[in-house]
Structure formats: structure tokens, C-alpha cells
Amino acid sequence: MKKGVSFLVTVALMVLVSSLASASDPSPLQDTCVAIDEPKDAVFVNGKFCKDPKLTVAEDFFFSGLDKPGNTSNAVASNVTTVNVEQIKGLNTLGISMARIDFEPYGQNPPHTHPRATEILTVLEGTLYVGFVTSNTENRFISKVLNKGDVFVFPIGLIHFQFNVGKTKAVAIAALSSQNPGVITIANAVFGSDPPINPDVLTRAFQLDKKVVSYLQSRF
């Protein structure tokens, strides 16, 4: 084999091996997916079993009511109305969902993450202070004050929040890059887990007095 041809073959093989090595599993659509041997015990196929396409109707792709404000009478003075595959069955496998977020004055959508989705948020009414924190070890805080018509992106998996800094109610619409984005509210997960995390763990992790940790756990 000529040297030039041999070199090209070697390069081609390297490219092939590299592409195979970089292959990965598809993103999960639920928190866990335990392998089972019996099909009769199956629960999810790509998030949901699929309806025969011949039997689909308009109602499978329809949701009504996003024009109505959510109930904000709660500790954080906000409400998230989700429109994902649980509300619109036709979203299954399509990789997109949305939500309406209502805020009372000084209400907030507290620090949280979406483990399976990037979020793009548009302010419809009011003024929101928003931000996210990049991953370790940089942990850089990136924030912005948004007004009506402004748009902001929260990268997948990063801790982020929205806070109404105005004296009037605020409304935002968010689009997310998963039919089932998932949400982990940081304070609820850490201090309100079931069963509770051992206070010794949180005392060391947050550098707090154990009594403070116990108090925080009692709040969630």
C-alpha cells in the first residue's frame, strides 16, 4: 500500500474510532429507568407508551387555560403552571414544554434546577431580577433585571431563579427543551427531603450550627 493511501486509511480509522468513542445514551426523560426483564411490568417507553398514530386527535395536542393566573397564595408568593407531557399527551418524544409563572410583588420562583432542560424565559408583565450560577469550581453568578418583552436563557442543569422586584404583579412565560424537564427546588430538596438528610451532613456542608440546620429542616 502506498504511503499516501496508508496515511488516509489511518486518518479515516482514527475518525471512526473517535466518533464511536464520543457516542452517548440519549437524555433521560424521567428521574429513574430501572431495567426489567418482563415486558408486562413495563411503565415507560421514551417517557410514555405511544398511541397508535392513526388514532390521534386534535385534543392530544391541545391545552386551555394558560391565560388564567395561578394561585400565588403561598410562602414564595408565586405559581408555576406547567404545560408538559402530563398536560398535552402529544408532546411525548417532541422534546419541548412550557410554563406560565405568576408573581406577587416581591414574590419569587426560588433557586432551582431543571435536570433535563434548558429554559428560555420571556417577561410579559412586570420587572424580574433573574440569574443563574455556573458549575464548580467557578460558580460564577450571572444575573440581569428584565422588563416587559425581555428574554433570558437558563442553561440546562444550572441553579437559577426569578424574583419580582417590582411593586406590581409580574407574569412570565418559559419554554423548556424537554417534554418532562423535571424541577429540583434547592431548599426543598436539601432541607425538606423525605426522609431527612442527617443534620451532621448539612452542618458540615453549609458550615452552620446544627440548631440552625434543624430549624431549617423544620421549615420544609
UniProtKB/TrEMBL annotation:
One of its GO terms (molecular function) is manganese ion binding. It is found in: Secreted, Extracellular space, Apoplast. Disulfide bonds join C33-C50. Keywords: Apoplast, Disulfide bond, Glycoprotein, Manganese, Metal-binding, Secreted, Signal. Residues 64-214 form the Cupin type-1 domain. The keyword Manganese applies. Residues 1-23 form the signal peptide. The keyword Thylakoid does not apply. One of its GO terms (cellular component) is apoplast. Oxalate binds at N109, H114, E119. Mn(2+) binds at H112, H114, E119, H160. Belongs to the germin family. This is Germin-like protein. The lineage of its organism: Eukaryota, Viridiplantae, Streptophyta, Embryophyta, Tracheophyta.
